Amino acid sequence: MNNEINTTKKKLADALKLLMSERAFEKITIQDIVDMCGMNRRTFYYHFKDIYELLDWFYHEEALEQLEINSTYESWHNELLYLFHYLEANKKITICVFKSLGRGYLEDFVYKSVFRVVKNIVYDMATDLEVKEAQKDFTAHYYSVSLVGVLTHWIQADFTPSPEEITDMTKVILKGTMRDALERFSQKS
Fold first, then answer.
1. Residue 30 · residue 44 · CB < 8 Å
2. What is this structure's pTM?
3. Which of 104, 96, 105 is nearest to 19 (CA)?
4. What domains are defined for the chain?
5. DNA-binding region(s): which residue ranges (predicted)?
6. Of 24, 74, 123, 164, which has the fewest beta carbons less than 10 angstroms from its beta carbon?
7. Contact 171, 77 (CB under 8 A)
8. Distance, C-alpha 64 to centroid of its chain
């Protein structure tokens, strides 16, 4: 049963992605989506309350879950590279979301997952330090906002430089700075 549900959701998501590559998000209706997959509106509403929830579902399933499951301090750059490659491979959809729903929608959506990942890394990195929870959370927020800002600027710059270049530059900047910040917070406590 669970496989059937996921198959149905995937078909709906694939239809939405195809439609997003052809027209603006606000011009897509639920009827367009279900017609494309040979389903009815009831089936759609059984799985999703609206098109936004479907959009959230497929972004989470295809891109953000990878970040949330696998990230550690040693591997975060691989997951970030995966996210950049995903957005680049789905360029038309990414631009559709960015233009139709605005920068804020994409930033908010990506921030939630990036923050969970960065927070886990920060907390793991601070296990041997006396750092207040609020300071750890602020550190996670700071780096999350920075990463999301880099990502949205990259989209606005027409996906340049390459995912590898941008991930390498990010890695150079972040290497050691999280730990340094946490150590400075620890000294202040």
1. yes
2. 0.81
3. 96
4. 52-188 (1.10.357.10)
5. 29-48
6. 74
7. yes
8. 5
